[in-house]
Amino acid sequence: MYISLAGYHWKHDGDFRIDRKDGYNGMQLLLIQTRAKVSVAGISYDILPNTAVLIDNSVPHSLCAVDDEYMDDWVRFQLSREERQEMEELKIPFNIPIYLKEDDTLELLVKSACQMFDNENLDKKRIQHNLLMAMLLYIGGVGKNSRSEKKIPYEAELKKLRKEIYENPGVERSAPQIAKELNLSVGYLNKIYNELFGTSYMKDVFSSRMEHAQTLLANSDKTVNEIAELCGYNSSEHFSRSFKKYSCMSPLQYRNTGGKQK
Predict the structure, then answer these.
(1) Which ranges of the chain have pLDDT less than 50?
(2) Contact, 217 vs 254, CB < 8 A?
(3) What is the gyration radius of the CA atoms in the chain, in angstroms?
(4) Could you give the CA distance from residue 76 to residue 41 in angstroms, rounded to a whole number?
(5) Beta partners for 32?
(6) What pLDDT shows up at residue 229?
(7) CA neighbor of 73 nearest in space, from 104, 40, 42
(8) What is the pLDDT of residue 86?
(9) At what angle do helices 201-219 and 155-167 cross, to 10 degrees?
(10) Residue 74: strand, helix, or coil
């Protein structure tokens, strides 16, 4: 186990957006210090400051600023097959955001890793290994505690629903319709959905459609009208307004620039 690269308090302006469709060849630990929108393995999350995400090898993910500034700390590292097996046995959570609340433990560990990365200490590799183990065990402990803190009602049904939302983004699923199917009020559906996924039901529907639209614009020759229909919109004008709000550019601009901000 060794660190290949690390960064502490890296800052970007409010139009920051990056889409890593093929992920990284290696592991990546992100500690996001500002509000952000993050998608990992096709699932979108609204991120609060001081949230960690341990992203697995070659897993697609994207990052997007929400406010006027985006900032994160990060460590990229490599695991041997045996070390990977150990992480799985310890049930270290991969590809799932973990909110750390007011605890700055992980931030200090990442800062130490950055300092050690440029250090020529003779035991540098061993120190890096121990710092990485401390980070991973810390994340595993926080993740385990957060999962055991509270059992959310209808968790299995909501996870199944979310999977369907992202697999079939063009299907119409209104909140009243879903609430009726689960025999819940709309308010309670939104409450438990937010508690489980960190975003509202309708925001998730919206994000799934916009991410599907981005994929189609980048990887197909379908027209904007066709894409609008496949994403559940009856009007291409409504679709274009929604897409621009989400991506900060029109559908055609997105297609022509490959999704890169000018």
Answers:
(1) 147-149, 261-262
(2) yes
(3) 20
(4) 18
(5) 51, 72
(6) 94
(7) 104
(8) 76
(9) 30
(10) strand
* Residue range 83-130, pLDDT digits in tens: 777 777 777 778 888 888 888 889 998 898 888 776 676 677 788 888
Instruction: List CB contacts of 250: < 8 A, sequence separation 6 or more.
Output: 240, 243, 244
Q: Supply 167's token pair.
A: 């697999």
pLDDT of amino acid 70: 93
Provide the token pair at 148: 């055991």
Report how many helices (DSSP H) and strands (DSSP E) the chain contains, helices first. 10, 9
Alpha-carbon gap, residue 54 to 92, rounded angstroms? 9
Single-letter amino acid code for the residue at 139: I
pTM over 0.85? The answer is no
Q: What are the structural domains of the chain?
A: 2-149 (2.60.120.280), 155-257 (1.10.10.60)
Nearest alpha-carbon partner for 79 in 119, 43, 128, 36: 128
CB 235 within 8 A of CB 241: no
User: How many Å apart are CA 79 and CA 259, to the nearest integer?
Assistant: 32
